[in-house]
Amino acid sequence: MTDEQQQDQDAPLSEEQVAQELEQGGLQARVEELEAQLAEARDQALRAVAEMQNIRRRSEQDVEKAHKFALEKFAGDMLAVVDSLERGTQVADQANEAVKPMLEGMQLTLKQLLDTLRRFQVERVDPLGQPFNPELHQAMAMEESTSAEPDSVLKVFQCGYTLNGRLLRPAMVVVSKAPSEAPVKIDEQA
Questions:
Q1: In the prediction, which pLDDT does 78 show?
Q2: How many other C-beta atoms lie within 10 A of the C-beta of residue 122?
Q3: Where in the chain are the domains?
Q4: Strand pairing category for 171-177 and 122-125
Q5: If one looks up domain 123-180 in CATH, what number appears?
Q6: Low-confidence residues of the chain: pLDDT under 70
Q7: What is the pLDDT of residue 70?
Q8: Model-level pTM?
């Protein structure tokens, strides 16, 4: 290096030269910093939009479920009335002429109540003779049977109900099982 070049290098830079050098090196760093901030802001904006869509979708589902199952508690309470009317019609003395008008009134009231429940998507589950389904039925007992398939419903103590496909109350049933093998008797006198 010549003395002249050394002096140029050691000499203080003019304001213009300092600004130029800062602009060249600093400008690139500033551009990179701003690009990183922009990418982060885009990412945050996309996440916010996705979160809003998820919130909207969840809200719509919640409203739909609220509409569908708003009657769940009321319908469940009405099932006790249905059970009482059914028991009343079953135990009434149908041969007694004095009781017949009351029995007919109870049967009509029961039919009207069941029709009203059905209009509001409360469906009866009466599984007599069907295969046992633990999602819809509650087994109260098991009974040996030669006439029914094993694991099928022999008797229904209480019908079950669903509301819009969701179980409101399981049917209480007696389930069949295969008859146990009788011990083989050996004829000792033969």
A1: 93
A2: 23
A3: 17-67, 71-120, 123-180
A4: unpaired
A5: 2.30.22.10
A6: 1-15, 17-25, 181-190
A7: 83
A8: 0.62
Q: What is the pLDDT of residue 13?
A: 55
Q: Which residue type sits at 50?
A: A
One DSSP character per residue, the chain reads: --HHHHHHHHSPPPHHHHHHHHHHHHHHHHHHHHHHHHHHHHHHHHHHHHHHHHHHHHHHHHHHHHHHHTTHHHHHHHHHHHHHHHHHHHHS-TT-TTTHHHHHHHHHHHHHHHHHHHHTTEEEE--TTSBP-TTTEEEEEEEE-SSS-TTBEEEEEE-EEEETTEEEEPEEEEEEEPPPPPPPPP-TT-
Mean pLDDT of the chain: 85
Q: Which residues have CB under 8 Å from 114's CB, separation 6+? A: 82, 124
